[in-house]
Amino acid sequence: MSEISHLIERMYGHHYTPQTISNMTQAVTEEVEAFRQRSLSERYVCVYLDATFLPVKRETVTKEAVYIAVGIREDGSKEVLAYTVAPTESAYVWKELIGDIHARGVTEVLLFISDGLPGIKDSIHSVFPKAKYQTCFIHVGRNISHKVRVSDRKAICEDLKSLYRATDKAEAEQALDAFIEKWKKSYAKVTQSLKANPDLFTFYDFPEAIRRSIYSTNLIESFNKQIKRYSKRKEQFPNEDSLDRFLVTQFEAYNQRFATRCHIGFDQARAELAEMFSG
């Protein structure tokens, strides 16, 4: 956690003067700009993209989309790469954020993972044309569960697990065929959408040791839930600047925490991943 973040933590809940508030605000504002403009590593194994919604006051108070990108480096360490705020989530804004990551030094990403927002894959490939893409399997399951009868949900969700718990892609494709055969009469549109999805099994192209970390956006979603939980201490953010200061304090703490920690499985996969980059 940064020095200013420690200062805020120590002083939270205590009386302090308007000048102190002004000094703290200026320091954190400078920290926000430094965070946004800092250089990034050249290569990332994967980048997770997800948006969460927080209340911001402009003319009125409404929840706006906070776009967040978290990357995992070759050594397994992870960091928040970039963020932006917009009224709604769109592929166009994601394209701008991904372009910002590229402009700050990222030249290669092996895999992007997101919830499958329409157009987001094209946004990614417009900046990183060689990157692979994985649609979040958990989101796929959630979407399907809303399209089937309640009485069938448990069985269908259990059958879906066989698709992302397979030993390899061939076994996963066999599991998909079995799923389609079992459910196509009852839910033709559901099975057709699965069969037509080209981004279900991308994660099987990666080392087995890291697959459970990259078949979904769970890693970034859990972080976003933490942000929302901390943000509830405020009823609303009075303006975007105050939201920026809050977010960057959270991001800096996250980056400090995981700067020297290797995410599970990445240490075992290091040699294989190095070959994927060189290839």
UniProtKB/TrEMBL annotation:
It holds the Pfam family Transposase_mut. InterPro entries: Transposase_mutator (IPR001207). Keywords: DNA recombination, DNA-binding, Transposable element, Transposition. Required for the transposition of the insertion element. PANTHER family: MUTATOR FAMILY TRANSPOSASE (PTHR33217:SF8), TRANSPOSASE FOR INSERTION SEQUENCE ELEMENT IS1081 (PTHR33217). Belongs to the transposase mutator family. This is Mutator family transposase.
